[in-house]
Input
Amino acid sequence: MNRTDLLVKVLDSTYDKESWYAPFKAAIEGLTAQQASWKPSGEATKSIWENVNHLIYYKERLAVNIAGREWNNPLDGDQTFFLTEQSGDEYEWSKVVERAEIAQRNLRDILSKTSSEKLGENSHEEKLLDIMLHDAYHTGQIMLIRKMQGAWPSER
Output
């Protein structure tokens, strides 16, 4: 297995291929817009919706960078949580879930077509590894929020 194939495999495990921890897709599966919008008490807390926005932003940006294009939506870290407006509307939430799927698919497609040599340029491989760790971290937060709501499936 070459380096690119290994990175694709790990990227998949953080998104939808369960290994020894639950992946992102399972963490948001079956959520309603109301559940996705709910926040635990505390000034610095984020909702699941906001966490998903944050993850989408960084995947979209990295895919554009690896593809060699210019990123035209610079946001600071705090702004990324508000990439889409949290409305509590089921249709709007479904669009966010779909955008997360598209962001993953695009990054995966670009990565699978990128040589190991190109991944070494501009710290792309390092940024990919950061994205994967970042996704796992925020997926854990999403699961914790669901558990706080009583919305985490008992069979998990």
In short: The mean pLDDT is 93. The radius of gyration is 16 Å. DSSP finds seven helices and no strands in the chain.
